[in-house]
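Handout, page 2. Input:
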Amino acid sequence: MPQDLLTVVGLSKSYPLPGGGGRHQAAADVTFTVKKGGSIGIVGESGSGKTTVARMLVGLVRQDSGTVTVKDRPRETRPPRTRPARLARAREIQMVFQDPYLSLDPRLTSAQCLRTALRLHGRDEELVTGLLDQVGLGTREAGARPRELSGGQRQRLAIARALAVDPEVLVLDEAVAALDVSIQAQILQLLGEIRRETGVALVFVSHDLAVVQHITEEVLVMREGKVVEQGATAQVLTTPQDPYTHLLLASVPREGWNPTP
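Output:
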């Protein structure tokens, strides 16, 4: 059996409420593992805490307690001070956001964007063509700036830029939520192929159970900052044990569904 690549134990985060009225528990005692080349989904409605967990994994939010370990190397809660240490940390976990346009430099073409990431991490800049091909972008897209790309193409570029770092773990926060269904299917297929080819582990954060069922092997269901159910995706989403998971599944539109009461 492959060794656990990502180990998360007791991850918790709270924020003070306005007016000194106590604290809001955004995430409480979240624990899970992902093996090399594995995939896990974190699902729940808005405010469930799933994005807070994703941001703690990457280091955009500092946890109150708990640990995140990659290949038996604990990730410190404070960013490293030295440049080599910061780059090494970035190579452990990369994140792809829901809106890639906000994270892409509008002045750079796709090729320049990838070349910059490769140069920063001391990798061969000749890898640009291969990265673009890996995510299904061609010569025209290579010379285009973000505003000249479609939403799906920008998301492909964001994935390619994350892969340019050669990460161990890729965290995707609602990465296909803003795309139409046909483009969603293309991106999900792409992610599956990349996982098989590179061995990168995926942490897929989404409110869409159909998407999670398609791309992940394990799943965590979160409600009000707590994990209410977790296990194999097929098992949790077909024979859920927690009433909240039942409720989430019941809210998924199905064939013949009529939104009119």
